[in-house]
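pinned: reference chain
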Amino acid sequence: MKHPTILGIDPGTREMGLAVLRGKELRFFGVRALRNGTRPYDVIGQARRVVLDAVEAYAPDIVAIEQPFNLATTRSHVLNIIADELCERVREIGLELVVLSPDVVRLRVAGNPRATKLEVARVLVDRGFEQLRALIPKPPARAALGLRPKDKYWLHMFDALALSMAAQPPISRGPESEELA
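pinned: its C-alpha cells
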C-alpha cells in the first residue's frame, strides 16, 4: 500500500511554512521568509517560487494549502491572492489540491476546532514527531501577553505539518480486511 507524498503549505505574507509527509515519515520541514518588496506582486512571486521549488524537489502527490481567513486588511487581501496563486499553479501542474480551513485542520489533528497553534504543535510532537519538540515555542509567563513574532516562527511549519496530516486520504482496507471486521 503506497502512501501519498503530501506537501503542506501554510501561506503567509512574511513567512511560509512547509512540510512534506509520506505516511508518518517527515521528509522535509521548514519556514521560508518572504521579503516584502515595493509591490504585493514581489511577495506573490516569491511565494510561487518557494512552492514550485518544493514541488520539484519532493514530487508530492497532493498539495495541501491552508485557506486564509478573510479579514478587511491589506495584508489579508494579499494573503488571499497568494493562496489563490498557489492553488492555480498546483492545478496547472496537475497535482491533487486540498484546501482546508484552519478549523478543519485543528479538528482532524487535535480533535478540537478551537485548539491553539501551540496545542496543535504539542499534539503533533506527541503523535510521533518527537524530533520537533525543541521547535515548540515556550509560552510567555503571562499568557495574556501572547507570543512574540520570533516565537511564532516555527508555528508556521507546525501548521504546514498539521495540514499534511489532515489532508491524508483515509487508508482503504481491502475486501479481505472488511470480512474480518
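why pinned: The domain at 5-170 is CATH 3.30.420.10 (Nucleotidyltransferase; domain 5). The longest strand covers residues 25-33.
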